Amino acid sequence: MNVPDYDETDETAADSAAADVADEEGIAWIADGAHADDLGDYRPGMRAAQEHGVRAPLLEAGFTKADIRALAKHLELPIWDKPSFACLSSRFPYGTVITRERLQQVDRAERFLRELGFRQVRVRHHDTIVRIEVEPRDFERVLQHAPDIVAHMKSLGYLYVALDLEGYRSGKMNDALRAE
């Protein structure tokens, strides 16, 4: 896999800001939710986290996503089957400048889709195009809500609204790296 050179990214800035808060509050460790399954894909945020001393207790314990769900179910946590929800910066193609406004645009788009009842959803930001990923079984429901979805996405500033016919898949933005 050809991965882009690592440079100072928004993940680095976020980790630095979190470190500042931790210092101010006297918190010894910052922890994130990385787990063993994250090692099989390119995750630039993991490198930034390591460089800033962020701990990943689930990864350190060797837990996979399935292990985490099984333990949460065993503990009767109501979120044991909550859909995956990666950092919003993963919704942008590599090389895109990530701004607060763009993150808010993507967040509002995904919140709208979840309010319509879509459980597993990703909104991929491609400048003026929004690419919606849902499970293939939800395609028909997307089409039923198409007028409302299009209107909402355009109200957020997108000119074009596309449904990804491959459906949702974690790490899909890394396909561009594999193609190189």
Largest sheet entry: 3 strands, mixed
The total count of helices amounts to 8
CATH architect. name of the largest domain: 2-Layer Sandwich
The rounded distance between the terminal residues' Cα atoms is 8 Å
- Mean of the pLDDT scores? 86
Note the run of SSEs as H and E. HHHHHEEHHEH
Q: Enumerate the spans where pLDDT stays under 50 for 5 or more consecutive residues.
A: 1-11
Count the beta strands: 3
What is the overall shape? Answer: globular
Give the structural class.
Answer: mainly alpha
Total domains, how many?
Answer: 2
The third-level CATH topology of the largest domain is: Alpha-Beta Plaits
Q: According to CATH, what is the class of the largest domain?
A: Alpha Beta
Radius of gyration: 18 Å
Helix content: 40-55%
DSSP strand content: 5-15%
Order of strands, widest sheet? 1-2-3
Helices and strands, with pairings:
Elements: H1 10-25, H2 44-51, H3 57-60, H4 65-74, H5 100-115, E1 121-126, E2 129-134, H6 139-144, H7 146-155, E3 160-163, H8 175-179
Parallel strand pairs: 2-3
Antiparallel strand pairs: 1-2
Describe this entry's structure for a reader.
This protein is mostly helical and 180 residues long. The chain folds into 2 domains: 10-74, no CATH class; 88-177, Alpha-Beta Plaits (2-Layer Sandwich), CATH 3.30.70. It is 42% helix and 9% strand. The protein contains 8 helices and 3 strands; from the N terminus they run αααααββααβα. Strands 1-2-3 form a 3-stranded mixed sheet, covered by helices on one side. The longest helix is centred in the N-terminal third of the chain and has 16 residues, at 10-25. The radius of gyration is 18 Å and the shape is globular. The chain starts with 9 loop residues before the first helix and ends with a helix.
